[in-house]
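Memo to structure team: turn this sequence into structure tokens by end of day. - J.P.
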Amino acid sequence: MDSQSADERRVSDLAVEISFAAKNIGWFISTVLAATIGTAIAETPFIRPHQSLSEIVNREYCLSALCALGLGCFFFRIWGHPSAKWTWTVGVIWVGQRTIILMLQQYLPFSAHNGAALAAHMAGLSCNVDRSSCSDWLAYTIASVRTLFFSVGALLCERLVPHGPLRPANSPDHSPSVELREESKEESGGE
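Reply from structure team:
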């Protein structure tokens, strides 16, 4: 009888761990989507037609950074999930893999000149010469800037806003994942 209850407890603990992991993955995906798509939506009202290419590039960097910073702080302040602070990892991996692929395809042997050309390509500085530079800049670099500044916004909000995320005053931890684990411990007998 004891082995059956121990097995049931293990299955229950496994179900809680799977639920915990799925919930955290869902939060992480939602922060990445908020950082990339939410920032694009938030900066839409500031788009002006008939700008030069350099003005468009500079405006996009500034607006992406500012909007993502604000959204990251807002997201962390409202929901308080720690995944908002780690959204930058997706952006770094995203732009890093494209940079490595480009380097191997077009910029070998690697030299100072090729390094500068690769940096200009990814930074959108060669958009007027190379159309693929514009698409790589928008798809990879700007997405990376947005995820990076989203995470910076969440970190700044955590550090600078006096009470951190909105939560009950008597709550020891704001993380929804901790609440899930505490609930599961209460249900399984408080181990």
